[in-house]
Every structure is written in structure tokens, then in C-alpha cells.
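Onboarding guide, step 5: your first structure request.
Type a short instruction followed by the sequence, for example:

Predict the 3D structure of this protein.
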Amino acid sequence: MHNRSDQFSKSLLRDGLSLVSAAETEVEVLAATQKIDVYSVPDPARAAERAGMGLLGELAAEASLFEPFHRTPSLRQVRRCLRKQLTWHHELERRARSAAGSAALDEDADVPPQPAVDFPALVVIGTGRPETVLDAYRCEPVQPGVYHAVPGLVMRVVVLAELPRTRATLLLRLLGSGRLLREALADLAALPDDAWEKSIAQPLLVHFRLGGQEPKTDEEDEVSAEIRAWFEDYERKLRSEERKVGRDEGRREGRDEGRREGRDEGRAEEAARALLTVLRGRGIAVPDVARERILAEKDLQTLERWLERAVIAASLADVLDSPT
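The system replies with C-alpha cells like these:
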């Protein structure tokens, strides 16, 4: 991960795709020095959810390598991505042969592995229009901002600057910079509080705002600067709402205990759902017993403590207190 912008892009794609697929970041490609940014394999059981994810769901309808670029990718950069695609397919075939008990089969033999392995798609995402790439691979537009290369390559090129400003493209537009990012952040803020896009993007915005060193504000780290500005505004709104709630509660204190308890229960329920969302986004499995425990927890401080741990935890055990 070269900078905060790269890490944010990979994390946003991974966590968004994890809703409907098994998504990994920094996937090692054997016999190569490169790593796939995000590799996504669709979950057939989540086809209905994927259909509601807009453009990202469409792109994730098949096993795909996602390679986001902060700027417009060059032909040389895309060629490196194509090498990853080919090498990864070779590795998938090797694993299929091994799983089928035919590991000794000559890898160069013209015999398909059992079971057969589909060639994974390559999704290249960049801010501007990569003319040299589109020309070199005879890419044709299939919808605004999305191009398909010649069929044999199974490559899709997404130009963020050409995507329509709709909810269907929002999660991808958050990978942009400058005006594109400002518009995407404004669109994100305007969504309902229970929008799935917010459940994915907001924990990451919080994480990248608070984690590590303060981001630079020069041109190379424009995305981090935009995220910081958006989050500071988001924090101001939260503080304002908290002050308002505090004043209202002061006036009602001693007079409406039942409502207060109901509100606390509602907050606990929201915190529990937020915790489950973060765990799912980070790829941490939650067994049914643990899920029931989280949803049954009514102490808001406990849930907030778990939520803070979930941002950096490597396993469920790192999040939950040991049951008594």
C-alpha cells in the first residue's frame, strides 16, 4: 500500500464487495512480485443483494480482480494488471488440479483442470479517460463511464469522471479525487442513515481519519485531505446533534424515564447493528451464538467498546469480552 489513498480505495472496494462476495485485499500472486489489490468471488446466495448495489454489484457478478488507480492509469500500468490476471488464472488452475488429485499433471499440457476454472475478469478503475489503454485494447463503451476490452481479455475499464452522478455509482465515485470526491461525499451525506453505502463507507472514513499520522494536504494526497474535510464536518454535525439531545433530555429528566429507556435501547440496537456491519466488512466471521450475544447486549458502553476494537481487530476474540 503506497499511501493512504491506495489503502482507502482497496478497503472501500473490499468492504463493499464483502456484502455479496468473498473479497480479499493484497492477494499474493505466486511466482510474481505483484499483488492483486482486491479479488472478489461472487456468492450465489447473495445475488439479490448484489443486484441492489448498482454498478459495483454489476462489476462483481463474476470472479474479478479490482485494480483502482488514484489517477488515470497508463498503458504500462494496465499491462502490469493484465500480468496479474494471467498469473492468477494460472494459479487457480494449479489449485484446481491439486484439489482434483492431479497435481502431477504437466502444467503446460493442453488439458483442462478438473473442475474447469473460469478466466477471472479484470476491472481497472481510474479517474480520467485512459485514451492509450482504450485504443490499445479496442475498448468499447457499454454504458457511461464503463468500457469493455476485446472479449478474450475479459477486461473492464471504469472512468470515474464519466460516471453519472447517481446512487448506483456512488461507492465507486468515492474512489475519485477533487470535485468528483466532493460530490460523492455530499451524495453520501444526503443518504438516509440506514443506507448500506453509509454502513460501508463511514467506518472506513472514521478509521482513516483517526489512524496513523495526520494526512498530508499536498496534491499527492488530495483524497485524504478531502476525506478529512468531510469527516470534520461530519463530526461537527454529530456534536451539534449530541448537544441538542442533551438539552432535550435535561428538560425531560425525571419526567419521561420510559422514553429515555426506549431511546437507550434503540441506540444499543443501532450500535449492535453497526458492530455487525464493521465485522462483516472486515471479513471477520460471526457465528450465530456471537451474533445473538451482540444483538442481546443492551449496555451502550459495552457495545461502543466492542465497536472500537472491531476497527483494528484480527478476530472476533479480539473484539468481544470473554463471556462470564
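Each response can be followed by summary notes, for example: The longest helix spans residues 222-252.
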